[in-house]
Amino acid sequence: MPPPVAVWAEAPARYPVVPYAEYVVQAKRALGESVVRSAALAEADASRVMTIAATAWMPAEEHAIADAARREWTARFVPSSGASVVPGVARQFDDAARRAYHEHRDINDVFGLQLRAFGANPSDPDIAGNLAFVYLKLSPPQPETARQVALHAMALRGTQLRAARPDDWTTFAIASALVGREDDARNALYVAVAVTRDLELSCRAALNSLASYGDPMRRPVRAMMDRIQAYGRNRESAYCNWPPQWVANVR
Q1: Which carries the bigger pLDDT value, residue 249 or residue 163?
Q2: By the 8 A CB rule, do 191 and 49 touch?
Q3: What is the pLDDT of residue 246?
Q4: Average pLDDT of every residue of the chain
Q5: Coil/strand/helix, residue 4
Q6: Of 21, 71, 128, 237, which residue is 20 to 30 A from 31 by alpha carbon distance?
Q7: For domain 22-199, which architecture applies?
């Protein structure tokens, strides 16, 4: 089995002191209202990028995928009326969730912290992307919600003209696979390959998803590895080959 991937590179210094329970209420309201609308609109933008990725088998076309992912998205997020947005508090909870994840605390604790972060600022694409990831780590996973929140995170990055984050596309891919949308899962992994600055990390994340979720990820991950080989990029990391070494060893 491949080693675990560290999703967050740095552990924060401290936890929030005040629980701020009201931000859970705000988060749930946003998830049930604003995020649903944001994700529905973002589907068209994501589909535009994935359509380009689906047929880009020449290495020179990889730039076209990345450019499409970085182009301004048309989806717009409208926060729930009356919501109290406090970016500093949101970052504090987000940092606490990162630390909790690094320290291998109960995933429910991580989820509680990340949900509060999102409630304090649902317009932060990093916080939204991290929440989408945590939804996949719950027992059982909640892939439909993870998919919506990942779309929301990608739309926020697109409308704020921030660089596409491969982690969001990988989360979207996994969530799509788990709800039976294999084509989206495959094409989203293609996009992740095109926009990543660390191909080994993206390959390890894909292999981890295969180890964690099994058959729904098998064909999307293999397609991703075939794409990497077609681009001649599999030499960048031993993790970017098929079959993966840990599967070969088991056999």
Answers
A1: 163
A2: yes
A3: 54
A4: 87
A5: coil
A6: 71
A7: Alpha Horseshoe (1.25)
